[in-house]
Inverse folding.
């Protein structure tokens, strides 16, 4: 009746429009096509209105059948309960509650409480109607009625990884054991003589008291504490020992005497537990992470390997054909590099002689250093060369350069402030030549980084009779940076200057 009345109201409101279409229909009798289109349009509107009104009535009936309930939940009991970044409750218990509420026509409002004690008190005082998932105990039955069990968990003993003197419940006597307020572990441990029980408000506090050695064991629900230690990234430091103290069945708890709500929920729990939906939710929160190497991935990897091997075999013949040509080209290139190397070595020997002559002829220290840098650039063909002298305590004395570019004054300013770069420290602290293969990357903070692109760098300390006077550095081509003979000659130059 509600649906028919609504339709009549709609037609009454829109009667002028209908009359207008009827008038046009009469006027279009002389045009059969136009008349047919008008009739079709009216029929379409009629069908659309009927569908809309039926849907509205159905939705209204569903809304009238919904029951509003408030569920009290603890703020922090993962993976059963926790609060996301926006303050909304999440977890296994929430997912199960939402699915059961959908089945029985409940609209659930969640009341987030700071602790289990507060959540229980909310139901006792009538601020909430139920708790979605809580352990079934004799004490709680005094103020809760329970549905059929939703799932179970074990109350287990946790110790430090290296602990070997506690292997089960019989070994707890004489040791400090932590439990959490309002958890059944408190009652279970009180029944064991000789246990030095310490009750904490927060399981995380108990975990770190265990790790610090202030307590010897923690007794708590296994899935909850395992989730907590994983989130804290200390699961590698804690282990479970012995058999569980007790297996606890967990269910939806409703306020005592609310049999209407209990019966409504109980039937849904019995229908829901064990279904595919329930299994999906359970595995989502308690299932072990899937190993990386699944069957499908192994098959894919083997297929890829086979494809690679097949491609490699196809390319092998092609490579064998061009191998001789490549070797010929390499021989030519090797010969050319050998000729270039001879030229470079001769030039470096000339630079060594020139520097030795400078040492003999030039007595002025500044001119000697500058002349050495100029000769290394001119004779050897290095891109840059510079020398810095420092006192034994690291204080700057003087410096000279050739080809070091505009960044050299900034380098000198840093040396004056006693700021040695990483490679300077390395060169001073080791004998021989320090090779920096890619200074553009390895020395990215160096004021001279602009001259390092595509080059390698040598640096050696200036040492004489055990005393370090400074260091000398040059940039060389990448190909020559690994030449042992050239490095030896460069080291000889450093020794002569020192």
């Amino acid at each position: 009746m509600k649906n028919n009345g609504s339709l009549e109201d709609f037609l009454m409101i829109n009667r002028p429009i209908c009359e207008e279409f009827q008038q046009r229909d009469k006027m279009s009798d002389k045009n059969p096509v136009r008349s047919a289109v008008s009739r079709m349009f009216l029929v379409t509107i009629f069908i659309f209105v009927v569908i809309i009104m039926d849907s509205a009535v159905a939705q209204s009936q569903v809304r009238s059948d919904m029951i509003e309930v408030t569920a009290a939940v603890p703020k922090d009991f993962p993976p059963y309960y926790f609060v996301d970044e926006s303050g909304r409750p999440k977890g296994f218990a929430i997912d199960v509650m939402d699915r059961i509420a959908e089945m029985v026509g409940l609209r659930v409002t969640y009341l987030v409480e700071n602790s289990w004690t507060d959540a229980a008190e909310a139901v006792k005082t009538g601020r909430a109607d139920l708790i979605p998932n809580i352990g079934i105990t004799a004490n709680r039955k005094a103020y809760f009625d329970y549905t059929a069990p939703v799932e179970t968990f074990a109350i287990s003993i946790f110790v430090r990884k290296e602990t070997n003197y506690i292997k089960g419940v019989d070994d707890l006597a004489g040791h400090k054991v932590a439990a959490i307020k309002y958890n059944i572990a408190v009652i279970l441990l009180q029944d064991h003589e000789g246990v030095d029980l310490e009750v904490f408000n927060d399981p995380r506090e108990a975990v770190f008291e265990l790790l610090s050695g202030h307590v010897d064991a923690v007794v708590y629900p296994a899935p909850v504490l395992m989730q907590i230690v994983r989130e804290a990234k200390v699961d590698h430091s804690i282990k479970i020992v012995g058999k569980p103290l007790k297996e606890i069945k967990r269910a939806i708890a409703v306020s005592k005497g609310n049999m209407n709500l209990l019966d409504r929920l109980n039937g849904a729990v019995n229908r829901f537990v064990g279904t595919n939906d329930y299994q999906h939710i359970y595995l989502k929160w308690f299932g072990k992470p899937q190993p990386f190497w699944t069957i499908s991935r192994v098959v894919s990897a083997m297929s890829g390997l086979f494809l690679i091997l097949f491609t490699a075999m196809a390319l092998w013949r092609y490579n064998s054909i061009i191998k001789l040509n490549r070797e010929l080209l390499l021989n030519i290139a090797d010969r050319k590099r050998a000729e270039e190397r001879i030229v470079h070595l001769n030039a470096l020997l000339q630079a060594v002689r020139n520097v030795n002559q400078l040492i003999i002829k030039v007595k002025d220290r500044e001119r000697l250093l500058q002349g050495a840098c100029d000769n290394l650039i001119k004779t050897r063909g290095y891109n840059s060369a510079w020398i810095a002298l420092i006192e034994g305590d690291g204080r700057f004395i003087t410096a000279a350069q050739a080809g070091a570019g505009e960044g050299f004054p900034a380098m000198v300013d840093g040396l004056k402030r006693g700021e040695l770069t990483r490679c300077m420290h390395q060169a001073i602290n080791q004998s021989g030549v320090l090779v920096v293969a890619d200074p553009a990357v390895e020395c990215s903070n160096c004021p001279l980084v602009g001259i390092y692109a595509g080059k390698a760098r040598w640096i050696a300390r200036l040492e004489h009779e055990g005393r370090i006077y400074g260091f000398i550095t040059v940039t060389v081509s990448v190909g020559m940076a690994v030449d042992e003979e050239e490095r030896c000659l460069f080291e000889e130059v450093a020794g002569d200057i020192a």
User: Anything to note?
Assistant: Residues 295-361 form the longest helix (67 residues). The chain has 16 helices and 16 strands.
